[in-house]
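User: I'm writing a tutorial on reading structure tokens. Could you give me a worked example: one chain, its sequence, then its tokens, then a sentence or two explaining what the tokens reveal?
Assistant: Sure. Here is the example chain.
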Amino acid sequence: MKKVLSLFLTLCVALGALPALAQEAVPSTLEDVLSRLDVAYAHRVTRAISELGDNPDVGNRSSGSAAERQAAELIESELKDMGFDTVNTERFTADTWSFNKGRVYYKDESGAEQFIALGGFATNMTFEGDVQIVYAGRGTDADYEGLDVKDKVVLVDINQAEDWWAEIPAYEAYIHGAKCVILCNVEGYATWDEDTVGSQDICGPAYAPAFAISRSGAKTLRALIDAGDGEATVRLDVDSVVTENGTSQNVWAEIPGKTDEVIYFFAHYDGYYHSFFDDAEGVGSVLAIARAFKESGYVPDKTLRFVLHGAEEWGRTDTEYDWSAGAYHMIYDLHPEWAENAFVILNIDGMYPVKGHTLFSLASVDELNGFVAPIAQSVFEGSGYEVEPKAYTSCWTEDFSYVRKGVPSVVASHAEPEEIYHGTAYHSSMDSDKLGVDEDAWAVVLKLFATLAVEFDDLAARPMAFTAHLKAMEEAYAGEAAQDFDSVYAAAEAVDARVAQLNADYAAALESGDADQAAQLRAEGIALDKKLHEIYAELTDRFFAFDYEDNLIFTFEMNEWNIDALETAIAALETGDGETAYNDCFSGVDYNWYAYSFSAETYAYMLAKMNNNTAGTWGEGMIRYPGENLWTVIRTVAEKLETENADYSAEIEVLQETLERQKGYRAEIEADFAESLSAMIELFNSAAE
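And here are its predicted structure tokens:
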């Protein structure tokens, strides 16, 4: 609508219908903003941030570290240079990690000392000296049988994409008395080439130290170990320091709007290794967009707030939910008042402009996808690139903390073939512009997010449509409250219709120049948005949950899967079919997939971590019931698989008890679900009035 008004005023000036001074009052348009988007500037900022690092070999700018603080100062300086009157740097309590050095020294064939640079995980270890190193396969409990690792370094193969993350073999090494574990990504992440080294979140305790090594480095150490009949002497020099209750910071600035409603731009500036793309590139993009809005003189209806979070990759020790600490503390502790007036989040943590990417993805919460998808398609049309809009909500990006508070988000996502970036260079030493940067693709991404901001800014009410998400929930649900969905649909459809009509009427009022009508409709939109916020906050609180792989599911789904797996296992064992129970059923109950490969002590710790170590994180309360521990059943059934006519009566008894407990949970879930549907109907009806 601003586009139409600008053209009208410009024409009037040209025809002499308005004095020349009126030309200064012509509001800037989307075209004005887009014309000032500067990819070269975004690239320069991204490179400057990516060059910061605590470790001279591999980089790293993690929560509370010197490099992270330097990145925050760089961002603050850029925002001030743009002319923002106030740039806010707000500190919050987070666990901090400084990975200062990590090397393994060894003697080559000539006797000269060489070193292999290590990557880090957020664990504690400061040590310099000679140690023995041994190889322990995949680091499972079976791999330690007959192996003495007391006070030794353990080299382990890992596939963090398909098998497990580092904390599980790290803890297994710890309970066997190892000094530390060094993990090599043999498949999955960080496999760009033989020299790539990579790390993922540790999601475990700082006292079980872990490091990462490239495949070429691991090959060198394996040769030394083999030559030494299973053991070799190396010199380890590492300094990885985790400090609980330290300090990180978020940096933000804003362009004030005419109302208190806010459109957010997000990115995070911390990173593993030098992390050019994840997410220094997002920071460069947000700053380039902020700069374009400032230079254009764009006067938004809604405040545009640019928030750069720290401690996104890691910020909390000894919990499954150790990432996105900066975002969590921002919306839960520093500014909980932001949630009510937040219109939408635009999070640039993805759509990486790596050379060779032609297919991109944009993920929005289900309720916004119908509005966002056609805008994305329009921006990408004719660009030479493709976009796949999708309705998808995930805890993998920092906006999820805000989503839990009832703020909907749109997130840059990835759709490129895994071998180009995400599966091979993500969280690794190859996350750099050495991969190649496609500035043409980057320009399209900048245009997309600037366009989305203006399109959202031109609305009277948040364009939420709730029926699609409710349909997905109904399809997943098999309980007794299903008959209530018709009433929920009817109530939600009335809200969806009111939102759509209000936005249509507002657009018509702006088009016709009826300022009074537009102002009235805008006021109605602000009031409606507060109710939409309440609805979405309740929806996420009442119906969102996690499975044991941190996937977002509905509250009832894990229980349904558990009951199905347990009933199938019991029926199989009653007929003497241990193979089906062992191979197809036990792994489908809560966290028990890991019980197949790790010791009872390690599994018990990991299960306790999932159940108990969530307070003060965005994952708190997302797993509703304690996980079932079937470790003993799994192991005893495995032992009996080779026994003809094996007696599974003891295992069946344990599984029956477990099943009854799960059925008890189901009764609670059913009652809560029925109550929640009734509460949602009331909220929808209130918003539709």
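What the tokens reveal: The radius of gyration is 27 Å. The first strand starts at residue 88 and ends at 107.
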